[in-house]
Design goal:
Layout: H1 5-13, E1 19-22, H2 29-36, E2 43-51, E3 54-61, E4 64-66, H3 68-75, E5 80-81, H4 84-90, E6 109-113, E7 121-124, E8 131-136, H5 137-146, E9 150-152, E10 155-157
Parallel strand pairs: 2-7, 3-6, 6-9
Antiparallel strand pairs: 1-8, 2-3, 2-5, 4-10, 7-8
Domain YbaK/aminoacyl-tRNA synthetase-associated: 23-141
Organism: Pseudothauera rhizosphaerae
Pfam families: tRNA_edit (PF04073)
């Protein structure tokens, strides 16, 4: 598998600048950061949630995890993790766990953890576990604005070795 076609089309259509970095196959966001030799705090991962309005894509650094209570409070809605079986259906063009931070492509609302704003460059998987997209903070934030992503603090630091 490669970068999902809708991702490439979206970035080309909106004139977003990016590079693609290849790395050995990985199995988790922290391993992706290690294999790609990028800081985990700069690797944006996606967690799919749902609430009474439908699906919601939460984007945060690989070094953090979603604080569900904090996010529910910020959104004034009860959010919960989406089921694994639903993810395969929603992201049929992606390997499991290699979801790109582009909710509009998949019909989802988005929320982004504020800590990503601090990073000069952002990396993210976009369909497979052997490539990451590299973007400047400005291009990534422009993409998040195109996605109408809300900026909220909801990530709690996860400790792992890098």
């Amino acid at each position: 598998m490669a970068i999902a076609s809708p991702v490439q089309e979206f970035m080309a259509e909106h004139g977003l600048r990016y590079d693609v970095l290849s790395h050995p196959h990985s199995h988790s966001s922290s391993e992706t950061a290690q294999m790609a030799h990028v800081p985990g705090s700069c690797l944006a991962k996606c967690v799919v949630l749902e609430d009474d309005r439908g699906y919601l894509m939460a984007v945060l650094p690989a070094t953090r995890h979603v604080q569900i209570g904090m996010l529910s409070k910020a959104l004034s809605a009860q959010v919960r993790l989406a089921g694994e079986e639903e993810l395969g259906r929603l992201f049929a063009d992606c390997e499991p766990g290699a979801i790109p931070p582009m909710g509009a492509i998949y019909g989802m609302r988005m929320v982004m953890d504020d800590s990503l704003i601090e990073q000069p460059e952002i990396y993210f998987e976009a369909g497979d576990h052997e490539r990451v997209i590299q973007m400047s903070r400005d291009d990534f934030l422009a993409m998040m604005d195109m996605e109408n992503a809300r900026h909220v603090h909801f990530g709690e630091r996860t400790w792992y070795r890098h």
